[in-house]
Specification:
The protein has about 625 residues and is mostly helical. It has 27 helices and three strands. It has a three-stranded parallel beta sheet. Strand 1, helix 25 and strand 2 form a beta-alpha-beta unit.
């Protein structure tokens, strides 16, 4: 399996199952493909918790059964709901603009894919990032045990105590299916799943959100052109997917990419009530991949409801609100086990801080121009930030208020995450930014999701104006209908394509670097892999715990060689509440010749072999 075929299979696995569910639920193929990834993860997130509780192993066959059942249920719900609701269906003749938008999505995906391909010559190597080892180990755990429930992740993480731990695992569950489907190693399946999310979801989301913003306010052909432009431009924004990929925040990255399809399903359900079951499933999918993605959906929906739906209700304010309740209620009920697990870990989530000590004015400037944590390693993206600013004004001119409201909320939240406010402002904004771990990087990624459609609308509008001016200069006196002639449509498309290619090429060096810099074989190299292989050949190595450190990358022995380390994550500097014996081993192993507690801990943990490596903690 080469790079291209592996990524293609991962994208198809991400999209096709959910698209079939959406099609069974009554959506047209184009929209079904667009929302397919959210529904794919929705089915996964819906079943892995009960499967884990009932002891049903998660594997390729149980996944297939779950999707077949979901298709049947979607079809049954469609037939039931169409008896009681009338759903307007667009004519087949209106599908051409959607193919225009799809072209922009494919361009954006190709541009991101090329950056990854050129930046990752050793794409099947072991990445040197903190979180990647946990994600790959989780995929190995699911393959070994069949246990994919997010409420059982403590069995992997808390080696000694087996204390309960909630960690969203839908991303890893689908990665395990990919590993079984292709025969790929867990690490390779992790990389391919991450690449599929990075290169497919963000052009898709940019185009879909742009279309949603302009639908009903501008002709479909122009909405399609703007959507295609935004999708193509998504490859030029650094915050997502490149920075998120670089930091190995893959579930967070994927959930952000699923947020817009879920948002579109929720908001369109007010007019098309047959989509309510699909909207519920999409929301479950987003939350099951990562909670921050769910927060993004809720933020978008709330702003849209207050500034778009209430002034212009679809079926009346009360009925529209009832529809949202019908979507939110079942979603909350299904996610209740996860919600309880998150509440138990609230202190860990809110305990992060990334203070820059540069002052609030500088923090505000950095937030506005997308120059926050990680992004400030590079020059400001002046062109696309300026385009986004123009698009911001254009949306306000069209009285589309809610994206501006979301942008303002995010900026106000980014600033105190870098330079905290005092009370009472800090108390309010802090609560919201805590949902994103008070991390300017995560918040700036959401800002990018809002800015990308704005930039696409601005660029498309600017080129339309420029081409219109050129047409009038060269064809004075001709009939006005020549604006839409094939020649000038081709000129417009050509200028847009050249601009998007130019921007993607301009930012290509940084994006290539970010996609591949951690696949450098620094933490885990050939010597480490040889050591793992040798260790796996020793008597009893697979039946005992391997004593290891928590910062040197040896936790990769599980994903790579199916050996069971004492630490399954980097856990720097030390995991909270690791268990008494594991703490003793971690803190005093070098005193084993005179500290009897070490021998007792080794016996209690069933450690037979110990391995260490260098270097430690490459960086985050």
């Amino acid at each position: 399996m080469n790079f291209g075929s592996g990524v293609l299979i991962a994208v198809l696995l991400l999209t096709v199952p959910g698209a079939l569910v959406a099609r069974a639920g009554g959506l047209r193929w184009t929209l079904a493909i667009a929302v397919g990834p959210a529904l794919t993860y929705g089915v996964v997130g819906l079943v892995i918790v009960p499967f884990g509780a009932l002891g049903i192993p998660w594997n390729i066959w149980s996944a297939l059964s779950a999707f077949l059942a979901a298709i049947d249920l979607a079809l049954a719900a469609r037939l039931l709901l169409t008896r009681h609701t009338a759903t307007a269906r667009p004519s087949r003749a209106s599908i051409r603009p959607e193919f225009v938008a799809a072209a922009g999505v494919l361009f954006g995906a190709a541009a991101i894919g090329v950056a990854a391909w050129r930046g990752m010559p050793h794409w099947q190597s072991i990445p040197s990032t903190w979180d990647s080892v946990w994600h790959a180990n989780t995929i190995r755990w699911i393959l070994d045990t069949g246990q994919a429930s997010p409420t059982h992740m403590g069995e992997l993480r808390n080696v000694e105590t087996q204390a309960a731990l909630y960690y969203p695992s839908a991303f890893h569950a689908l990665g395990a299916v990919l590993a079984q489907l292709t025969g790929a190693a867990p690490t390779t399946a992790y990389t391919l799943s991450s690449l599929a999310a990075a290169l497919w979801l963000f052009p898709l989301s940019a185009g879909l959100l742009t279309w949603q913003l302009l639908a009903g306010r501008t002709p479909r052909c122009r909405a399609a052109g703007a959507a295609a432009t935004a999708a193509a431009l998504s490859a030029s924004f650094t915050a997502v997917p490149y920075v998120e990929f670089d930091t190995a925040s893959m579930p967070n990255l994927t959930a952000y990419g699923l947020a817009v399809p879920a948002f579109v399903l929720v908001t369109s359900s007010l007019r098309h009530r047959g989509r309510i079951p699909l909207a519920i499933l999409a929301l479950i999918g987003v939350f099951s991949v990562h909670l921050t993605g769910g927060v993004v959906v809720l933020t978008f929906v709330l702003a849209w409801w207050l500034l778009e739906a209430i002034p212009r209700p679809a079926r009346g304010r009360a009925r529209d609100f009832a529809t949202l309740v019908l979507i939110g209620g079942p979603t909350l009920a299904v996610l209740l086990p996860q919600s309880l697990g998150v509440l138990q870990q609230a202190e860990i989530i809110t305990g992060h801080a990334f203070v820059t000590h540069e002052g609030k004015k500088r923090a505000l400037f950095d937030a506005i121009v997308q120059h926050t944590r990680h992004l400030n390693d590079y020059p400001i993206q002046n062109v696309i930030v300026a385009l986004a600013g123009v698009g911001f004004l254009l949306l306000l001119a069209k009285r589309i208020w809610w994206p501006a409201a979301v942008w303002l909320l995010l900026i106000v939240s980014v600033v105190p995450s870098s330079s905290p406010f005092g009370r009472p402002i800090g108390a309010v904004t802090g609560k919201y930014s805590d949902l994103f771990y008070s991390d300017p990087r995560r918040l700036s990624a959401v800002v990018t999701m809002v800015l990308t459609p704005m930039a696409g609308i601005a660029l498309f509008s600017g080129v339309l104006i420029a081409v219109g001016w050129a047409r009038r200069r060269t064809h004075t006196g001709r009939h006005e209908r020549e604006t839409g002639s094939p020649l000038w449509i081709g000129v417009t498309a050509g200028v847009l394509a050249l601009t998007c290619v130019g921007l993607a090429w301009h930012y290509f060096p940084r994006h290539r670097y970010l996609m591949g810099q951690k696949y450098d074989q620094v933490i885990i190299g050939d010597k480490d892999l040889q050591a793992f292989a040798h260790l796996a050949s020793l008597p009893g190595a697979r039946d005992t715990i391997i004593g290891n450190a928590n910062v040197d990358g040896t936790a990769w022995m599980y994903a790579v060689a199916d050996l069971h380390p004492l630490w399954t994550h980097y856990d720097y500097p030390v995991q909270q509440g690791p268990g008494y014996n594991r703490f003793i081993f971690w803190a005093y192993a070098d005193d084993a010749d005179h500290d009897p507690r070490v021998a007792d801990a080794v016996h209690a943990l069933n450690i037979r072999y110990v391995i260490t490596s260098s270097p430690v903690v490459r960086g985050f």
